[in-house]
Amino acid sequence: MRDPLQTATAAANYPTRKRSATILVLAKVKEALYSRGVNGVRGMGRIFRRFDSADGDRRIDREEFYVGLKELGVTNISNKEAEILMDYLDKNQDGTIDYDEFLVGIRVSTMML
Question: Which pLDDT tens digit goes with each residue over 49-62?
């Protein structure tokens, strides 16, 4: 049986752990983007359209997001890390990432997390 104090401490630290994981995953994605020369709004738009290429509905769902990350060359993250990043980017929690969420989320300073 787990110690209640341990359980409470783990629960209290969860937001910090999740924030740390988000920062690490976001850094990996930014590194992949910058290594491909993507650093402006126009380049981010091209990447967004590539991620959304499956159906072109101007929203990136989970499957498109995972495939897009792999095609971008972000192969050094786990499915769980990709999930964390998807949840972070999906600000309105509708299960998809629209262009504004993508642009703001990727370009945001990690100091703001």
Answer: 999 988 999 999 99
Instruction: Give the Cβ contact number of residue 54 at 10 Å.
Output: 12
Q: Is 93 left (phi over 0), alpha (psi -120 to 50) or beta?
A: left
Q: 3-state class of 96 per DSSP?
A: coil
Which pTM value belongs to this model?
0.78
**CATH classification (class only), 4-112:** mainly alpha
In angstroms, the CA 97 to CA 70 distance is: 17
Whether the CB-CB separation of 18 and 4 falls below 8 Å is answered with no
Ranges of each domain in the chain: 4-112
Q: Look up residue 38 and give its DSSP letter.
A: -
